[in-house]
Amino acid sequence: MAQSTGNALLDKSVLRTLRTWKFKPGTVSQVSVPVEFTSEENR
Fold this sequence. Notes:
Elements: H1 8-18
């Protein structure tokens, strides 16, 4: 992850998921993938 989302819980979840990703030779490397999300704080 290049930059924090500003939400510690979301950052932790993203990092946990990224640790499960595996390298696949022959794929494009270092591609930035934009991600948009909406957060609702009404829990």
